[in-house]
Amino acid sequence: MEKELIRLDNIVMHFGGTEVLNCLNLHIRDREFLTMLGPSGCGKTTTLRIIGGFVTPSSGRVLFDGVDITELPPHKRQVNTVFQKYALFTHLDVFENIAFGLRLRKVGDADCKRRVGEMLELVNLRGYDNRTVSSLSGGEQQRVAIARALVLHPKVLLLDEPLGALDLKLRKEMQLELKKIQQHLGITFVYVTHDQEEALTMSDTIVVMNRGEIQQIGSPTDIYNEPKNAFVADFIGESNIIDARMEKDYVVRFAGSRFECLDAGFTENEDIDVVVRPEDVDILSPGAGQLEGIVESSIFKGVHYEMIIRTRDFSFLVQSTDNQEIGREVSLLITPDAIHCMKKSPRPHVKEGGEEDA
Amino acid sequence: MRKRRTSVLALPFTVYALIFIAAPLLLIILYSFCVSPQNGVTLTLDHYKKFFDFSNPVYLQVLWRSIYIAVISTAICLLLGYPMAYILSKLRPGLRQVLSVLFVLPMWMNFLLRTYSWMSLLEKTGLINSFLEAINLPAFNIMYTQWAVVLGNVYNFLPFMILPIYNVLIKIDQSVIEAAQDLGADSMKVFGRVILPLSLGGVASGISMTFMPAVTTFVISKLLGGGQNALIGDLIEKQFKTTGNWGFGSAMSVIIMVLILLAMNFTSSYEKDREEGGQLL
User: Fold this and answer.
1) Do B182 and B34 contact (CB within 8 A), yes or no?
2) Edge-to-edge strands, sheet with A251-254
3) Which residues of A206-236 are buried (b: 16+ CB within 10 A; e: fewer)?
4) In angstroms, what CA-CA distances link A273 with A96, A217, A235, A266, A289?
5) pLDDT tens per residue, range B55-104
6) B183:A134 CB<8 A
7) Best to test chain B binding among A90, A96, A190, A192 (most B CBs inside 10 Å)
8) Mean pLDDT, rounded, of chain B
9) Contact, A240 vs A314, CB < 8 A?
10) Is B178's CB within 8 Å of A74's CB?
11) Which of A333, A334, A331, A332 is CA-nearest to residue A286?
């Protein structure tokens, strides 16, 4: 593991009367691609701005390489930022935009030229030196913004939803490209997004946030496969979140049936949430599974069909490559490793198309 | 089809513009080449020759004085107006609105009244001097000097400088300023390298908005400058109202118009460079 580079220590942030961050603790390692993920208003951008120095936390400390930088103004920090709407300097051409930071550091002309050239190469904009910023497309402006921030060789690059304004295809390309740049340069990226897919694609570590609190920190696979609570399960990927009762270790009751599971350590008969990913539900012919139901709807999604199957107590979202006719009676099988038991937690509805019906 | 419909909508203004803008303009140009426009059309270049007579440059001197006073007034407006606009743009929105109205408020009063009130302030026995006398300080005599005219200009035209600059400044995206800080600029450098260059469009508008009325004014110079500080505007007025030499008055109007056009061309080319220019014109 790389050494710790940034530490946020008990950060509290108030704006007016509202608490935006509630005692946040986070450490970011060197060379890590860390993504802060959450719905709007969860405090992820504020956290990024605290690291960048644009806002000072109401209380708590920010450590960089062991040094307290809580009060250090942005222009003295060793981090650079890619802003949400690029924030390019419209009075300067592409070259001067990228050279802006170098000029402030009084880097000589020849050096300046070489380093800007390297950056243009890195972001695939060779030959764009003298173009005006307003003549560039959104994707190209984004590349200039990235080059402008990277030219100073920061130890950490902060990215505030940098791909939000791009169309889907371009966004996917840029995701891969950003990841490549990060690995090539070997620096830390702190990335803010509300797009779970983006987070899963690029990150080494994902920090899921909601209402100013960290919900879970982990690798993309951890977060997806072992969500700590219903909020994380709901926010990352599609899921069935079902009210359940833990009858005893390895036995859980939900949707009107009793299931075997792999979880233990809850108190007997504790009310919990169970998460079942839609791709983990098997559809069998009637009578062959654990729950009987009727196919209520089926939508073709390209790779798979997405079906809603209504059982007596709960409507399951199920993904399968085999289509089932609407109205057909089927049986569902949920194997023990498909069941994730979680402590109950308040679950704000942030995503559209909540799968839960009950 | 669509094109025709929009041109129909433009008709009222086109008629208006033809009658009240184009026709008078053409008339003035025509008059300036007539010996005596009141008595029929006899073409001549005498009026222009008279103005540009280098052996007797009275009129050129007046033109020079007008430009000189207008440049100084504009410069002072800029020096006062830019910081004012900057401070205004940094305030929170509610306060900002109230204050920007307060800046325009004096304009709601009649222009002549405002200038007359400066007379009563600046006069030998005026408010300022009575006050200075009362506290045993030497009197302050700028009435009927160029400086009184400059003061009148600055007072009357300052809002025209503040507003376009302010309009550009409030449109500068906060994140652009943060980007500059992020790249290592302290507040002085943020201003010098980002805010100032981005606001030059507004400065250019402000300059033309102040310079134009300042160079053509005749009321301010007459009331505050007295007889010996007549400007080109006074001269033109005199040709029409006292001397009755409409041809010469028209020629001077044309000259000053050309001058302003040149100045505007200069500033507007600047504004086109920076697309964010906040123009009032």
Assistant:
1) no
2) A257-260, A251-254, A240-248, A270-276, A340-343
3) bbbbbbbbbbbbbebeebbeebbbbbbbbbb
4) 55, 19, 15, 12, 22
5) 989 999 999 999 999 999 999 999 999 999 999 999 998 898 898 888 88
6) no
7) A90
8) 88
9) yes
10) yes
11) A331
pLDDT surpassing 60 at residue B27: yes
Which of B173, B182, B276 to mutate: most A Cβ within 10 Å? B182
Q: Residue B2: its pLDDT value, please?
A: 56
Rounded Cα distance between B61 and B216, Å, is 15
Helix (H) or strand (E) holding A12: strand A4-15
Residue A158: predicted pLDDT: 97
Q: Decide if A149 and B198 are in contact by the 8 Å CB cutoff.
A: no
Helix (H, G, I), strand (E, B) or coil at B127: helix
- Residue B225 pLDDT level (bands cut at 50, 70, 90): confident
Count of A-B CB contacts under 8 Å: 67
- Concatenated DSSP letters of B129-172: HHHHHHTT------TTSHHHHHHHHHHHHHHHHHHHHHHHHHHS
Indicate the angle between helix axes B93-104 and B58-90, nearest 10 degrees: 160
Using 50, 70 and 90 to split pLDDT, how confident is the model at A356? very low
Distance in Å, alpha carbon of A174 to nearest chain B alpha carbon: 21
pTM of the model: 0.81
Tell me if chain A has a CB within 8 Å of the CB of B194: yes
For the record, the structure tokens of A19 come out as: 């608490």
Of the candidates A75, A85, A134, the beta carbon closest to that of B181 is on A75
Contact yes or no for A293/A310 (Cβ under 8 A):
yes
Q: How far is CA B140 from CA B125, B131, B132, B147, in A?
A: 10, 10, 8, 12
ipTM, two decimals, is 0.81
Cβ distance of A134 and B275 shorter than 8 Å: yes
Write out the two tokens for B91: 């305030």
Residue B179 in contact with partner chain A when CB distance is under 8 A: yes
Reduce the DSSP state of residue A168 to 3 states and report it: helix
Percent of chain B at pLDDT exceeding 90: 51
Cα of first residue to Cα of last residue in chain B, in angstroms, is 30
Q: What's the gap in Å between the CA of A88 and the closest CA on chain B?
A: 6
Take residue A265 and report the two structure tokens written for it: 């350590």
Decide: A316 and A281 in contact? Cβ < 8 Å.
yes
Instruction: List residues in chain A touching B: CB distance below 8 A.
Output: 52-54, 73-75, 79-81, 83-85, 87-91, 100-101, 104-105, 134, 148-149, 152
Note whether A85 contacts B175, CB cutoff 8 Å.
yes
**Residue A352, pLDDT above cutoff 80:** no
The closest CB to that of B197, out of A54, A88, A91, belongs to: A91
Predicted pLDDT of residue A194 = 93
Where is pLDDT greater, at B40 or A125?
Answer: A125
Residue type, A354: G
Distance CA A299, CA A307 (A): 6
What is the rounded distance in angstroms from the CA atom of residue B157 to the CA atom of residue B216? 12
Choose among B110, B49, B78, B60: nearest CA to B231. B60
Residues of A in contact with B182 (CB under 8 A): 52, 74-75, 79-81, 149
Distance from the Cα of A348 to chain B's closest Cα (Å) equals: 31
Under a CB-based contact definition with an 8 Å cutoff, are residues B110 and B254 in contact? no
